[in-house]
Amino acid sequence: MLHEFTLSRDKAMINFTLKYCDTKQKLLNSFGFRRVVESFIKQELKKDEGVVYDYYISHFGTEDEGVDSFIEVLKLLTVFNIDEVVAVDNKYSIFFEDKDLFIEVIELLFAYWKRLERYTIVRNTRVGDGLQNVRFIQANDMFNELILSTGRRIQATVNGYETRIYRQSTAGANAGLTLNDVPWNCPIEYKGLTTIPFISTVVFQPPYIAYTKRNTRDGIFQEHQQNPLENIVLNEDDWFVFPAKVGSMLTFVYFHKDFMVHGIGLANLFELATETEYMGKKPDMIYVFGYPDGHEEKRTFYYKDKKNDILIGYANYCDDIDYFGYMKKMLLTLHNVKQIENKRLPIHGAMVNIVLRNGTESNIIIMGDSGAGKSESLEAFRTLNKSYIRHMRVIFDDMGYLQKEKDGTIKAYGTEIGAFVRVDDLDPAYAFEQLDKGVYTNMDRVNARVTIPISTYEIISRGYSIDYFLYANNYNEADQKILIYDDLNKAIKVFEDGARKAKGTTTEKGLVKSYFANPFGPVQEREETEKLVRSYFKDMKEAGVKIGEMHTSLAIEGRTKDGPLEAAEELFKLINE
Asked: What's this model's pTM, rounded to 2 decimal places?
């Protein structure tokens, strides 16, 4: 980031490396503050508070004069009382003819500032020992306190008395990034990416709440026959790269600053790789999210760079990709395509390691496409925690993969350390527990979502044997909630059909099917996946894995909560037998 401050698409970016305000006067004299006041007066007051706008601007004659005078009077109020301010220049008396109105304008300015997404940046020229990260956290805390104290001082001066109730809200940045310039093994085709700094630390203030242009995802990602990244050059003032560990794949996620909330969301979903893990290395995958290619329509696809053995993901700059599902699901598609190439079987589902109160331990995979009941089943397990479970560990919440080990056994691994779940599907008590962790989007809309950390990279990458492998049936009501198949071919048909009733997480409606319940890799690579499915299912059956269906009843009217709970209870009784 080359500028000290930018403001676009309701996102304020503050570069602490170029400008750090540690006094009230530095803050009020800064370019960033002037930019915010200009935007507030021209976009907020002029549009929504026309009477207030006309009252002040008509006095000063022009908008620019009004901006200058407003900022100057705020600076004076941090040092002088009202009479002294008026003595400096009588034109400022307009602000104090109606003190209540002036206080209201200050509060409107503060509210406008807080509605913006606010980010702070520090760019290090070399990899440090971690001390700079501690200072960055302190700098953010001090910046937050500076804004609060400045506002309180101005308000107290105008009111003529000190504030007695202090609300310590997040007035500074919602999130902050430290950036490092780290060299990596970059093929010549991608030299235009090398100036973009790597994110080394993410700091944010939960609950982090943001609104995006879209709140559902549409379609699947298809393979493209031309490399979309060849010879493109990214502007270092507009881009960041999040070095993620997606399962076992090192992935460089380049995202445009206008989609910062999705970049921050990555920190709750995937492990952030350390500098030593990517310095001088070539990534397995690269995803460029939000490239302005001149096309207004959405363009999302992947490309197999066989020459460099890198899988490329691409999403162009448009409002339609402004939903975290386009960030997460493309990364999982790339991961799954790569794993299929490596003869591993991607699983769209949830897996838990459970130890019951009687000491019985089981590893359970529940497979199904979006809205089938994977996350809801995990919630049901949590609800039953006190009755049945001594300990529960989530291995994956949405996507994992099966791998045949050298000794011939099959182990399951996770891809994510977090979960991107519908807020409505969470138990209210559990949802409130996540307030100090979550990245929330579109909270008052259909398909409101939260991204929360649920595991550690060490846990998801450990490798677990499988006891139960169940397909989540959300559309059929059944007296027997858990059905174990003896006929392997019948089981394979159920899993490969991938049937579910759409539940509003995508634009699909009614009963729909997707091959192997996984439109993120297996659909695109169906021929290879079919071979893997038959090989893995045969080996699991021979190893004694119980393969069947779990009727969650999630899409049946009135059964959203009770259905997964009843299925979980029956499953635990089955394990106890």
From this structure: 0.92
